[in-house]
Amino acid sequence: MRFYEELNDFLPLARRKVRFIHEFQRRASIKDMIEALGVPHTEIDLILVNGQSVDFSHIVRDGDHISVYPLFEALDIQPLVRVRPHPLRVSRFVLDVHLGKLARYLRLLGFDTLYRNDYEDAELARLASTERRILLTRDRDLLKRAVVTHGYYVRAVEPRRQVEEVVARLDLYRAIQPLQRCARCNGLLAAAPKQRVWERLPPETRRYIETFWECGECGHLYWEGSHMPHIRRFIDGLRARAGNDMPNTDSVAEPNP
């Protein structure tokens, strides 16, 4: 067997980036064998057995030469059998309980992101399946659940590195629409007339700020504030990594304290 690129992250050091022999005793599908080695099926895009592409149901036979590849970004493998369903047209997410800060970052960038700190694994898998969301997690066993078709194991630990990793790995640069969603609850933001929200504003904000946004779900108020240069630098940094034109960040909002 041989695993390629970032799939090696899931293997012991001795089996990374090399061919190795894997012994087995019972009849097994290629999917079951790969996941028994620790690699979630959601990370895989192509499997070659003796040079021929196969799907997850392929039964492994003694003497097979197996090559396993992650999602392809630059190589056209259209004629081959992709083991994953077609990519989701819209990138929507559900995150496990350990990724709360990543959820806020993704919402800041405008992505529909479900998160609660009390989601059970079964509920996460159900939401990913029924609502066609990409499951982001640091629990590889969660990604092995059969109902999960789109998921990603987040390697980074620090939240800012996590969002940079997810945006790069899933090529989300062009989908960024800064601050269209509430960082707290994921609701959509809408313009809020100053007169209507006057009583809810701190004195200094009443004096200097004219433009406000309100979450349609939880009612939280947003406006451009002192943290805006930091937010712009962060978003522009993502833009620079991609080398693509991104939505303008001049008119985005900051939550009130």
Automatic annotation (TrEMBL):
Residues 92-234 form the Mut7-C RNAse domain. Keywords: RNA-binding. Residues 1-76 form the Ubiquitin Mut7-C domain. The keyword Transferase does not apply. The keyword RNA-binding applies. InterPro entries: Mopterin_synth/thiamin_S_b (IPR016155), Mut7-C_RNAse_dom (IPR002782), Ub_Mut7C (IPR027798). Pfam families: Mut7-C, Ub-Mut7C. Signal peptide: none annotated. This is Twitching motility protein PilT.
